[in-house]
């Protein structure tokens, strides 16, 4: 069995905890993510997908239970430690790219290194090497609003990868991309997963996008409701199973 790189045990998230507006968005989440996995998180809108991904990746603070990344319980870390831990281990990709519009693509990609006090002379070659690979070398002096959605997402991927993270967390990364750019992004993620063993956890509502993963985790009403492993299935067979599972779930809603 491969090494467990991330795990949640009885994780609960209550928004507005201890206030009259308290809302339990995640009830009892148990999951083990092995090194080198590529997981797709699906589920209806409001099911808790973003809450899940934020709480297992240091972005938000779970209310109860345990989350460990590389054996380290997130809750025990100070905010300084979390910052360093993130830089060492995690890369984030978001739907709206989250690039700073007042910074060039170069500056955006370099930001995690600058924040981690990497010497200036080491920053430029690292940014350029990655930009070359992601085919945005000629855009490094441009600002995000001078670039297309696909180009911006490439820059966001460079920023996520600049620290060479072992885990990539992505929330609807293809949400603002057309289908050609979405497919290209999935090929990039698949390659990182296959060739460099990067562990990827990705939220998406799209069965086609999920078909690039190796395991589907379906969240509903704040619980992990179902899981599906790709195993020996072809991508097409896996895709069909993902479509069927989503259709079954939707049918249940209709029948209620
Ligand atoms: P999904 O990503 O599956 O659409 P979310 O994780 O965004 O779902 O939300 C799960 C539930 O938690 C929803 O009912 C949502 O309204 C609620 N929720 C999300 N963020 C907050 C917040 N900051 N404060 C209170 N409730 C929230």
* Major pleated sheet: 6 strands, mixed
Bound molecules: adenosine-5'-diphosphate
> What is the annotated CATH architecture?
3-Layer(aba) Sandwich
E-strand count = 10
Q: CATH superfamily, please?
A: P-loop containing nucleotide triphosphate hydrolases
Number of self-contained structural domains = 1
Radius of gyration: 19 Å
The parts where pLDDT drops under 50 for at least 5 residues are none
Structural class: alpha/beta
Averaging pLDDT over every residue, what do you get? 95
Order of helices and strands: EEEHEEHEHHHEHEHEEH
Q: What spatial order of strands do you see in the largest sheet?
A: 6-7-8-3-9-10
Structural description of this entry:
This protein is of the alpha/beta class and 256 residues long. The protein has a single domain, classed as 3-Layer(aba) Sandwich (Rossmann fold). Helix content is 39%, strand content 25%. It is built from eight helices and ten strands. The protein has helices at 49-55, 79-89, 105-115, 120-133, 149-161, 179-196, 207-210, 235-255; strands at residues 4-15, 23-34, 38-42, 64-69, 72-73, 90-94, 167-171, 199-203, 215-220, 223-229. It has a six-stranded mixed β-sheet, sandwiched between helices. A four-stranded antiparallel β-sheet has the order 2-1-4-5, covered by helices on one side. The protein is globular and about 60 Å long. It binds adenosine-5'-diphosphate. The site of adenosine-5'-diphosphate has 12 residues, from strand 2 and helix 1.
Write the layout of secondary structure elements.
Elements lengths: L3 E12 L7 E12 L3 E5 L6 H7 L8 E6 L2 E2 L5 H11 E5 L10 H11 L4 H14 L15 H13 L5 E5 L7 H18 L2 E5 L3 H4 L4 E6 L2 E7 L5 H21 L1
Parallel strand pairs: 3-8, 3-9, 6-7, 7-8
Antiparallel strand pairs: 1-2, 1-4, 4-5, 9-10
